[in-house]
Amino acid sequence: MMTQDKKAVSCCEHKVRFWERLTPRAVDVVCGLSIVSQQRQKIVPHAFGDVVEFGFGSGLNLPHYDQSKVRSLIGVNPQDGLPRLGRRAIAAQDLSVDLLVESAEALSLETGCADSVVVTYSLCSIPDVEAALLEARRILRPHGKLFFCEHGLSPKPFVAHMQHRLTPPWRWMASGCHLNRDVGALVRSAGFCLDQYDCYDLGFGSRILGTHHLGIASKI
Ligand SMILES: C[S@@+](CC[C@H](N)C(=O)[O-])C[C@H]1O[C@@H](n2cnc3c(N)ncnc32)[C@H](O)[C@@H]1O
Protein backbone atom coordinates (compact mmCIF):
# COMPACT_ATOMS: atom_id res chain seq x y z
CA MET A 1 0.00 0.00 0.00
CA MET A 2 2.83 2.37 1.04
CA THR A 3 4.67 1.66 -2.23
CA GLN A 4 1.52 2.36 -4.27
CA ASP A 5 1.02 5.68 -2.41
CA LYS A 6 4.64 6.63 -3.09
CA LYS A 7 4.21 5.76 -6.78
CA ALA A 8 1.03 7.91 -6.97
CA VAL A 9 2.79 10.90 -5.33
CA SER A 10 5.82 10.58 -7.56
CA CYS A 11 3.60 10.38 -10.70
CA CYS A 12 1.71 13.48 -9.51
CA GLU A 13 4.97 15.36 -8.84
CA HIS A 14 6.18 14.34 -12.28
CA LYS A 15 3.00 15.77 -13.89
CA VAL A 16 3.33 19.04 -11.92
CA ARG A 17 6.97 19.35 -13.00
CA PHE A 18 5.92 18.64 -16.61
CA TRP A 19 3.34 21.49 -16.54
CA GLU A 20 5.77 23.83 -14.76
CA ARG A 21 8.17 23.36 -17.65
CA LEU A 22 5.60 23.31 -20.46
CA THR A 23 3.57 26.40 -19.49
CA PRO A 24 6.47 28.91 -19.68
CA ARG A 25 7.49 27.47 -23.05
CA ALA A 26 3.92 27.71 -24.39
CA VAL A 27 3.68 31.34 -23.17
CA ASP A 28 7.03 32.07 -24.83
CA VAL A 29 5.88 30.60 -28.16
CA VAL A 30 2.49 32.38 -28.26
CA CYS A 31 3.87 35.72 -27.03
CA GLY A 32 6.73 35.40 -29.53
CA LEU A 33 4.48 35.27 -32.61
CA SER A 34 5.43 37.90 -35.15
CA ILE A 35 2.00 39.60 -35.06
CA VAL A 36 2.47 40.02 -31.29
CA SER A 37 6.01 41.38 -31.79
CA GLN A 38 4.58 44.00 -34.13
CA GLN A 39 2.34 45.28 -31.30
CA ARG A 40 5.25 45.43 -28.80
CA GLN A 41 7.23 47.43 -31.33
CA LYS A 42 4.57 50.20 -31.18
CA ILE A 43 5.17 50.74 -27.43
CA VAL A 44 8.40 49.35 -26.01
CA PRO A 45 10.88 51.53 -27.99
CA HIS A 46 9.37 54.62 -26.28
CA ALA A 47 10.61 53.57 -22.82
CA PHE A 48 13.35 55.79 -21.46
CA GLY A 49 15.67 56.31 -18.48
CA ASP A 50 15.40 53.91 -15.56
CA VAL A 51 12.91 51.30 -16.72
CA VAL A 52 11.01 48.72 -14.68
CA GLU A 53 9.20 46.03 -16.66
CA PHE A 54 6.34 44.19 -14.94
CA GLY A 55 5.83 40.54 -15.98
CA PHE A 56 9.28 40.30 -17.60
CA GLY A 57 8.53 36.69 -18.59
CA SER A 58 10.96 35.21 -21.06
CA GLY A 59 12.40 38.61 -22.01
CA LEU A 60 10.58 38.97 -25.34
CA ASN A 61 10.63 42.77 -25.08
CA LEU A 62 14.43 42.95 -24.89
CA PRO A 63 15.02 43.36 -28.66
CA HIS A 64 12.41 46.16 -28.76
CA TYR A 65 14.06 48.56 -26.30
CA ASP A 66 15.86 51.54 -27.77
CA GLN A 67 19.14 51.03 -25.94
CA SER A 68 20.21 54.62 -26.56
CA LYS A 69 17.28 55.80 -24.37
CA VAL A 70 17.45 53.21 -21.58
CA ARG A 71 19.79 53.84 -18.61
CA SER A 72 18.83 50.79 -16.56
CA LEU A 73 16.31 47.98 -16.76
CA ILE A 74 14.77 45.91 -13.98
CA GLY A 75 12.55 43.00 -14.99
CA VAL A 76 9.96 41.98 -12.38
CA ASN A 77 8.45 38.49 -12.41
CA PRO A 78 7.31 36.07 -9.72
CA GLN A 79 8.89 32.64 -9.57
CA ASP A 80 6.72 30.64 -11.99
CA GLY A 81 9.16 29.12 -14.42
CA LEU A 82 9.47 32.17 -16.65
CA PRO A 83 12.46 33.78 -14.85
CA ARG A 84 14.50 30.74 -15.95
CA LEU A 85 13.81 31.62 -19.61
CA GLY A 86 14.19 35.33 -18.80
CA ARG A 87 17.71 34.80 -17.43
CA ARG A 88 18.64 32.96 -20.61
CA ALA A 89 17.35 35.85 -22.77
CA ILE A 90 19.25 38.39 -20.64
CA ALA A 91 22.50 36.45 -21.04
CA ALA A 92 22.04 36.34 -24.82
CA GLN A 93 22.07 40.12 -25.39
CA ASP A 94 23.95 43.33 -24.49
CA LEU A 95 21.55 45.37 -22.35
CA SER A 96 22.29 44.95 -18.66
CA VAL A 97 19.13 43.80 -16.88
CA ASP A 98 18.43 43.02 -13.22
CA LEU A 99 15.79 40.40 -12.66
CA LEU A 100 13.67 40.96 -9.56
CA VAL A 101 11.78 37.82 -8.60
CA GLU A 102 8.77 39.48 -6.95
CA SER A 103 5.10 40.15 -7.58
CA ALA A 104 4.24 43.49 -9.14
CA GLU A 105 1.53 44.07 -6.50
CA ALA A 106 4.07 44.51 -3.66
CA LEU A 107 7.48 45.64 -4.82
CA SER A 108 10.58 46.20 -2.73
CA LEU A 109 11.59 49.04 -5.10
CA GLU A 110 11.85 52.57 -3.72
CA THR A 111 9.15 55.16 -4.38
CA GLY A 112 10.07 57.36 -7.36
CA CYS A 113 12.87 55.15 -8.68
CA ALA A 114 11.70 54.80 -12.30
CA ASP A 115 11.16 56.95 -15.39
CA SER A 116 9.27 54.24 -17.25
CA VAL A 117 7.17 51.26 -16.28
CA VAL A 118 6.59 48.86 -19.17
CA VAL A 119 3.96 46.14 -19.08
CA THR A 120 3.08 43.89 -22.02
CA TYR A 121 0.58 41.00 -22.00
CA SER A 122 0.79 40.77 -18.21
CA LEU A 123 -2.03 42.96 -16.83
CA CYS A 124 -4.29 40.06 -17.90
CA SER A 125 -2.58 37.61 -15.55
CA ILE A 126 -1.42 39.66 -12.57
CA PRO A 127 -3.91 38.55 -9.89
CA ASP A 128 -4.45 41.97 -8.22
CA VAL A 129 -4.09 44.22 -11.25
CA GLU A 130 -5.32 47.33 -9.39
CA ALA A 131 -2.57 46.91 -6.76
CA ALA A 132 0.07 46.40 -9.48
CA LEU A 133 -0.97 49.61 -11.26
CA LEU A 134 -0.83 51.52 -7.96
CA GLU A 135 2.71 50.14 -7.49
CA ALA A 136 3.58 51.36 -11.02
CA ARG A 137 2.34 54.82 -10.04
CA ARG A 138 4.26 54.75 -6.76
CA ILE A 139 7.62 53.83 -8.28
CA LEU A 140 7.35 56.32 -11.16
CA ARG A 141 8.99 59.74 -10.82
CA PRO A 142 6.64 62.72 -11.30
CA HIS A 143 7.41 62.95 -15.05
CA GLY A 144 7.37 59.14 -15.39
CA LYS A 145 5.31 57.20 -17.91
CA LEU A 146 3.51 53.89 -18.00
CA PHE A 147 3.80 52.06 -21.33
CA PHE A 148 1.33 49.25 -21.89
CA CYS A 149 0.50 46.76 -24.65
CA GLU A 150 -2.16 44.26 -23.60
CA HIS A 151 -5.08 42.20 -24.80
CA GLY A 152 -8.36 42.84 -23.02
CA LEU A 153 -12.05 43.66 -23.04
CA SER A 154 -13.69 44.29 -26.40
CA PRO A 155 -15.80 47.43 -26.92
CA LYS A 156 -18.24 45.22 -28.89
CA PRO A 157 -21.03 44.10 -26.51
CA PHE A 158 -21.41 40.56 -27.88
CA VAL A 159 -17.65 39.89 -27.82
CA ALA A 160 -17.43 41.40 -24.31
CA HIS A 161 -20.29 39.14 -23.18
CA MET A 162 -18.43 36.08 -24.52
CA GLN A 163 -15.21 37.27 -22.86
CA HIS A 164 -16.99 37.49 -19.48
CA ARG A 165 -18.47 33.99 -19.98
CA LEU A 166 -15.20 32.42 -21.12
CA THR A 167 -12.85 34.04 -18.61
CA PRO A 168 -13.36 31.50 -15.76
CA PRO A 169 -12.40 28.39 -17.81
CA TRP A 170 -9.74 30.35 -19.73
CA ARG A 171 -8.14 31.53 -16.46
CA TRP A 172 -7.93 27.94 -15.34
CA MET A 173 -6.34 26.79 -18.62
CA ALA A 174 -4.06 29.77 -19.23
CA SER A 175 -2.20 30.45 -15.97
CA GLY A 176 -4.66 32.99 -14.56
CA CYS A 177 -5.08 35.02 -17.78
CA HIS A 178 -8.31 37.14 -17.94
CA LEU A 179 -9.95 37.87 -21.30
CA ASN A 180 -12.14 40.64 -19.93
CA ARG A 181 -9.97 43.30 -18.33
CA ASP A 182 -10.75 46.84 -19.43
CA VAL A 183 -7.13 47.94 -19.49
CA GLY A 184 -7.66 51.63 -20.35
CA ALA A 185 -10.21 52.03 -17.54
CA LEU A 186 -7.98 50.20 -15.04
CA VAL A 187 -5.02 52.43 -15.90
CA ARG A 188 -7.17 55.57 -15.50
CA SER A 189 -8.59 54.48 -12.17
CA ALA A 190 -5.09 53.88 -10.81
CA GLY A 191 -4.42 57.63 -11.11
CA PHE A 192 -3.03 57.97 -14.63
CA CYS A 193 -4.13 60.05 -17.58
CA LEU A 194 -3.87 58.49 -21.01
CA ASP A 195 -1.54 60.55 -23.23
CA GLN A 196 -2.02 58.03 -26.02
CA TYR A 197 -4.48 55.17 -26.11
CA ASP A 198 -5.68 52.83 -28.80
CA CYS A 199 -8.09 49.92 -28.57
CA TYR A 200 -8.31 47.78 -31.70
CA ASP A 201 -8.82 44.29 -32.96
CA LEU A 202 -5.69 42.53 -34.11
CA GLY A 203 -7.55 41.12 -37.12
CA PHE A 204 -5.94 37.75 -36.48
CA GLY A 205 -7.81 34.91 -34.86
CA SER A 206 -10.64 35.78 -32.55
CA ARG A 207 -11.62 39.19 -31.13
CA ILE A 208 -12.04 37.37 -27.84
CA LEU A 209 -8.26 37.19 -27.53
CA GLY A 210 -7.31 39.72 -30.19
CA THR A 211 -8.74 42.94 -28.76
CA HIS A 212 -5.72 45.07 -27.97
CA HIS A 213 -5.24 47.98 -25.60
CA LEU A 214 -2.06 49.99 -26.17
CA GLY A 215 -1.10 53.22 -24.56
CA ILE A 216 1.22 55.64 -22.83
CA ALA A 217 0.02 57.13 -19.55
CA SER A 218 1.27 59.86 -17.20
CA LYS A 219 0.75 60.24 -13.48
CA ILE A 220 -2.02 62.69 -12.60
C1 LIG B 1 1.62 36.14 -20.85
S1 LIG B 1 3.05 36.38 -19.96
C2 LIG B 1 3.75 37.79 -20.75
C3 LIG B 1 5.23 37.89 -20.59
C4 LIG B 1 5.90 39.11 -21.21
N1 LIG B 1 5.53 40.33 -20.56
C5 LIG B 1 5.64 39.22 -22.68
O1 LIG B 1 5.14 40.25 -23.12
O2 LIG B 1 5.94 38.25 -23.39
C6 LIG B 1 2.46 37.05 -18.42
C7 LIG B 1 3.57 37.31 -17.43
O3 LIG B 1 3.04 37.94 -16.25
C8 LIG B 1 3.75 37.38 -15.16
N2 LIG B 1 3.03 37.61 -13.91
C9 LIG B 1 1.98 36.91 -13.42
N3 LIG B 1 1.65 37.38 -12.21
C10 LIG B 1 2.49 38.40 -11.95
C11 LIG B 1 2.65 39.28 -10.84
N4 LIG B 1 1.86 39.19 -9.78
N5 LIG B 1 3.63 40.21 -10.91
C12 LIG B 1 4.43 40.31 -12.00
N6 LIG B 1 4.32 39.51 -13.07
C13 LIG B 1 3.37 38.56 -13.04
C14 LIG B 1 3.87 35.92 -15.53
O4 LIG B 1 4.86 35.26 -14.77
C15 LIG B 1 4.28 36.05 -16.99
O5 LIG B 1 5.66 36.23 -17.13
Q: In angstroms, what separates the terminal alpha carbons?
A: 64 Å
**What proportion of the residues is helical, as a percent range?**
40-55%
CATH topology of the largest domain: Rossmann fold
Largest sheet: 7 strands, mixed
CATH uppermost class of the largest domain:
Alpha Beta
Structural class: alpha/beta
Small molecules in complex:
S-adenosylmethionine
Q: How many separate helices?
A: 7
- Supply the CATH superfamily name of the largest domain: Vaccinia Virus protein VP39
Low-confidence stretches: none
Domains counted in the coordinates: how many?
2
Strand order of the largest sheet: 3-2-1-4-5-7-6
- Bulk shape: globular
Strand content: 25-35%
Average predicted local confidence, pLDDT: 90
Question: What CATH architecture label of the largest domain applies?
Answer: 3-Layer(aba) Sandwich
- SSE order, as H and E? HHEEHEEHEHHEHE
Please characterize this protein's 3D structure.
By secondary structure, this protein is α/β, with parallel strands linked by helices. The protein folds into two domains: 127 residues, Vaccinia Virus protein VP39 (Rossmann fold); 58 residues, no CATH class. Helices cover 40% and strands 25% of the residues. It is built from seven helices and seven strands; from the N terminus they run H-H-E-E-H-E-E-H-E-H-H-E-H-E. The protein has a seven-stranded mixed sheet with strand order 3-2-1-4-5-7-6. Helix 3 links the parallel strand 2 and strand 3. The longest helix is centred in the first third of the chain and has 30 residues. It starts with a helix and ends with a strand. The mean pLDDT is 90. The structure holds S-adenosylmethionine.
